[in-house]
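If your schedule permits, I should be very grateful for your opinion on a structural question. Please examine both parts with care and let me know of anything in them that strikes you as inconsistent. The record follows directly beneath this note:
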Amino acid sequence: MQLHFQQAFRAFILLAFSTLLFKLHHTGDISKFINPKYEVLSQIASIIFLILFFIQITRVWSTQKKRHHDCYHDDHSCHHDHGDTPLNTKKVIAYLVIMFPLATGFFLSPKVLDASIADKKGAMLILSNQKQTSLQQKNTVGGETSPQMDEKNINSQEEISGDDGPSDPINLEDERIISEEEYNELVIQLELKNTIEMNDYVYAAFYDEIGMDVGKYKGKKIKLKGFVYKEKELSQNQLVISRFLITHCVADASIIGFLSEFSEAPSLDNDTWIEAEGVLDVTTYNGTELPLIKITGWKKINEPETPYLYPISIKIM
């Protein structure tokens, strides 16, 4: 029997990828890398890696006869690698590239995106441009078609709920694929509520709607949580209550948040998580109208177990 070192190493790599994915799911850290709607796919991937590992194991040992097989080509020579050819620079580089994510996955703790990343992305520039982007993409949410509210739905909702907002709010389960009708109801609730609660489920949808017409929501109370982000251009009593929105994975994470104003702002450091409530107002930054929250109450909180936000996808019927 002949042991093939490179085949054994390839089997190890497959097992390591499978183990890493199982580990991330077991600890819950997978949510720090991808949108939860892809968790099933990553679980399937871990199983596929495990199956490939068992297949690869059969190639680790071979008889001498099998090792010296013949390849029948027109030129009577073998031009592909069977895993037993000597290591060369090209192979070493390929193995190092493959091993890098394994090494970082096993030996480095997952780090949640923070204010330093927001600063590198140019958060305030992004926030000031988001209104224009939202207007251009008014019919899309999370990359899929978003419905427009029709007058019939608004009128019927007003008859049921009156001026104080919906009396029977939608059951907001942790399901981010909803129908057009359900999305319409979310937007109706936003317009009718006197106090807007920016919970993780509706945050991205409400944020887009508020950004498209800031003046419509001026004077409404709002409750939200996020981490503190500051820029030099902001006044001392201003900061941004920020969140990261992930559409697919952390590679496409975008910063969203509300410029906020209150006297205690100078005492808060970047990355401090707070829960706040206040009144929506309108301000101008770089010539663009932005929502401004005048904080009336706040408190420090621990970083949530799920710090990221995810968009709601609209099911096309």
Observations:
- Residues 72-76, 135-174 have pLDDT under 50 and may be disordered.
